[in-house]
Amino acid sequence: MERINKYxxxxxxxxxxxxxxxxxxxxxxxxxxxASLTDMVSSNNIIIxxxxxxxxxxxxxxxxxxxxxxxxxxxxxxxxxxxxxxxPKDLKHLKPVGRLDxxxxxxxxxxxxxxxxxxxxxxRYEKEKEYEVKTKPxxxxxxxxxxxxxxxxxxxxxxxxKIELRNGKINITISEGRNRLxxxxxxxxxxxxxELKRTRISFLKLGDLREGELRYLTEKEICKLKDE
Length: 228
What we know:
This protein has 6 helices and 17 strands. β11 and β12 form a beta hairpin. Helix content is about 20%, strand content about 30%. The protein is elongated. It is an alpha+beta fold. The longest helix is centred in the N-terminal third of the chain and has 9 residues, at about 15-25. The model has no long low-confidence stretch (mean pLDDT about 90).
């Protein structure tokens, strides 16, 4: 048994507030009676919205190590390679969560779970993303310390969560998703980003996933994302 609003969320009806409005407006019926927010339901119940039966949607979650050269904007008519080209036919309905520009490689999540996608991209949730960066010319620690203090870009103030040098490459953690943000951050200090790879989204790490390869999230990972 589970609460009616939790069950309805699995039916991909939209945000929690939208689901609650359906119930409050008397549009949801459980076994012929109007539902209330406190109702508990199971798979044995017949749940109806506007005379149509509701069944939980099967959500899928796939991580891909995106190579450079692929775009993550699905409606780009000029793109030669789109991220979904890397998916098998039965997964091509999935949509990328957030963006990685064409010249950026690394970790990206694709799913048909709109609520989860919003949770991972909306600024209020402050989900961390970690990147590995190589610049031209090479950068020194004094510049990184200045970056860590925060600075003003044309679209607002930015302050990285963390920056460090590892094996000659920079690792930077941010919790925002503004367009081409990492590249603009380094350009502000006069450095060109020549390699950029995303290595982490929240607790999900790139690990040993090879370029162009994908893997499904485990049940444990899915539950952890939903609980965050």
